Request: fold
Amino acid sequence: MIGGHRTSMRLEPSMWDALEDIGRREGLTVNRLCTQIKERIEEQARRRGIDPEEADVTLTSAVRVFIASYYRRACTEDGHLRAGHGGSDPFIGTPFELPAVDDVDGGQSAVAAGGSFPTPGGQSASPSTLLEA
Reply:
């Protein structure tokens, strides 16, 4: 229930995880957090003189933007250094990190062959699975 209405949203599992993490940190349920995001969208529309029902912002899009903005605000230079950022490979520590060429069957990329590749957790995933998740 979002704002007292039955609502559905399609988000990637990592986005749901992020919402739960943010809710836990802020002392809010995911439903309450999403309700507050919806209320903010509506208030912003009203302040621009737009009927909230006519606003071109979807709740799903607003939730994704909120999550990115929330975490961007929390980023620090020290945090980026601890995460290994800035070393010319922004994919380190993400589901898109590729193993070193020496670790993949003679240097041939399984992704280029349309196959799957190991993720940092050792599980195998195809590019389409990662994008659909």
